[in-house]
UniProtKB/TrEMBL annotation, chain A:
Residues 4-100 form the DUF4387 domain. It comes from Microvirga puerhi. InterPro entries: DUF4387. This is DUF4387 domain-containing protein. The lineage of its organism: Bacteria, Pseudomonadati, Pseudomonadota, Alphaproteobacteria, Hyphomicrobiales.
Automatic annotation (TrEMBL), chain B:
It holds the Pfam family AtuA. Residues 4-409 form the Acyclic terpene utilisation N-terminal domain. This is DUF1446 domain-containing protein. The lineage of its organism: Bacteria, Pseudomonadati, Pseudomonadota, Alphaproteobacteria, Hyphomicrobiales.
Amino acid sequence: MKKLSDLAKTIRSKNAGVDKITFDIIFTDRSVYDKVRQCKVLTPATVAKLYNIEEQRIADFVEYDPACAIKFTIYRVRPSGSAGDSDIFGAQQYAPLLDVAVDI
Amino acid sequence: MSSIKIICPNGHLGFAPLKAESFLLGVAAGPDFIAADSGSDDIGPVPLGTDTSTSPEAWQRQDLEAMLLASRRINVPMIIGSAGDTGSNSRVDRYVEIIRELAKKHRLSPFKLGYFYSEVDKERVRRAIGSDEPVLGLDGRDALTESELDATDRIVAMAGVHPYLKLLEEGCDVIIGGRSSDCAIFAAAALQRGTSEADAYYLGKVLECASFCAEPYGAKETVLGAVNGSGVTVTAMHPDQRCTIASVAGHAMYERSNPYDEFVAGGRLDMRECHYEQIDPRTTRVTGQRFIPAERVRVKLEGAGKVGERYIGIASVRDPYTIANINDVIAWAKAQVFERFGQSGYELHYNVFGKNGVMGDLEPVKSPAHELCIVVQGVAPTAEMAEEVCMTGTRQLFYARLPDVKGTAGGVAFVLDEVLKASPAHRWTVNHTLAVDDPLELFPTHTVTIGA
C-alpha cells in the first residue's frame, strides 16, 4: 500500500476560470499511471467522497494519457474572490489527495 | 514555407518580474516577435471592479522596459495582451503611457504603437439580453439577466486574434492589447506569418505561461516557440530547464477543465490528437492539433460588481475547550451582529484557520489544530457600517459565553485590537459570451507614432 504522494510527480489544484477549480495528478512512470487507473482509487465517485461533495459538482473527469495524468474539475459554490473565499487562486485544495491510499 | 519564432518571457507580466538571463538568451536566439500576456482572472474580481492593478507598477514597467528595449534593438514587434492584469481601458492607457515614457527615457527611434480597448458598454450587453441571441452563461451559469447586469460595475470582452491581426497588418512595432485570450496574442503573430490556424493557436497555447511548459519547475523564465513546417516546437531558454514531452503535454491541462479544448473568439483548438516528440534535450515538437472555426463568433465577457465596503478582523484561540466549541463562539458573535443590524443588508464571513480555513466544506480533516486563527470579514453598503459589523463580529468572539470555560477574562487572543479596511468586496457577476457579427466590434483599435 502506497500513498498517492509517493507515486505522483505533481498533485496540484488551480482555478479553471472563475467558477471552477481543477485538480491535476501527474505521474512520470506510465506503468504507475496505468496501475493507479486500474485500482480505481481516483474516480468521480471516490473524489466526491473524499471532498464530501455531490458527484454533480464534478464538471469534468479525464484520464489524460499524453501527460500520464488524471484530471478532474469541480464547480465552486461561489465565484473565486467572493467575500469569504479563502483560496482565490484555488491553489491549496489538493492536499487531501496526497494521502489517498493506493494498493500497488 | 511559413515559419515563425516567438519568445515569451513571462506568463503574467507584472505579477512577478521576468528573469533576465533566459530572456537575453531568448533575444539572442533571433525571435520574430517578443510577446507576453499581462492579465488573469485568477486575481479575483476586485481589480476589474475597482479598475486597479494588483501588480506593482514598478514590476510592470521593468518588464515592459526589458521587452521594449530588446524588441527595438533587434527590430521585431513586441506584443502585450491584457494590459495591467484586467485589460480595462485605463490599464491600456497606462501601458501606452509607460511605453511613451520609456521611449523618451531611452531616446528610441520613432516606432509605431498600436493599441486596442476591450471594455464593453453595459447598454450593448443589455440590448443582447433582450434579443433572440441571449448572453449565454459559461461554466454552468444561466444566461445573463438585467438584474445581474445592473449589479455589474465593469465588463471587459476577451479579444481573439482579430484586433492583433489588424494592428500587425497596419505595421505596428509595439502592440498593447486590452483583455485578450492568452493564446490569441501569439496566434495572431503566427497567422500574420501565414502558419495554419491549428499551429498558430497551439503555439499560443503552449507559450502563454512562459516557462510553466518547462521542467524543472521555475516560473518567469523565457521559452521560445516556433512553427517551421511540421507542427510547433517549444524550447526552454534557461540553461537548466527543458521542454519535455511530459512538461509540454502537462501544460496543456493547466488551469482548464479539460486538456483537449481551448476556446477562443472564433473557434476551438482541439488537442485530442496531439502527438508529442522530444527532438533535442530542451525541445519538444507537437503535431496533430486541429482548429475548428466557430459557426457564430461568440466573445467571452468578464464582469465584476461591487458588493460593499469591507473590513477584516483577526482573532485567535488557544483554549482547547473553546476550540472544541468554536461554532458556538462564532454563533454568539453572529447573534450580537444580528441584534444590532438585523438579519440582512450586510455580509459577515468567518474563515477558521486550524479547522477548515483553507478548504471550508471541502475539508475532510475534522479534528482541529491546537490553536485557531479566525479571519472575520464584514461587508456593508457604507464603510462605517462595514467597520462596525466587522468590529462586532470580531470583538464579540472575546465575550462569547461558553458554559464551562475556565478563562473568563477573554475568549480569544488579538494581534490587533482593531479591524482593518480592506478592498471593497466584489463578485464575478459576468462569465458569459456575447454573439457578434463583426469580431472587431468590441475592440476599437488605435495607432500612434512614438518618438516622432
